[in-house]
Amino acid sequence: MARRTPPIYARIEEDLRHGIAGGAWRIGARLPSEDELRQQYGVSRMTVRQALARLAAAGLVTKRQGIGTFVNRTKIERVAGRLLGFREDALAHGLVPAVRVLRMGLERADEEDARLLDLHDDDEVLRVVRVRFADGEPIGLNTITVVPVFARALLDLDFCDSFYDGVGRRLGVEVGQAEQTVEAVHGDDGDARSLRVAATAALLRITRVTRLADGRLLGLTRSLYRGDRYFLSLTVHRTEPDMPG
Question: Are 145 and 130 in contact (CB under 8 A)?
Answer without folding.
Answer: no
